[in-house]
Amino acid sequence: MTTMTVMPHAVEGWTVADLEALPDDGLRYELVDGILLVSPAPRPIHQEALLELAVLLRAGVPATMKVYFAPLDWQPDDATSLQPDLLVVRRADVRERNIVAPLVLAVEVLSRSTRRYDQLLKYSVYAEHGVASYWMVDPVEPSIVAYDLVDGGYEEVGRASGDESVTLAKPFEITVTPNALVSG
Question: What's the pTM value of the predicted model, to 2 decimals?
Answer without folding.
Answer: 0.82
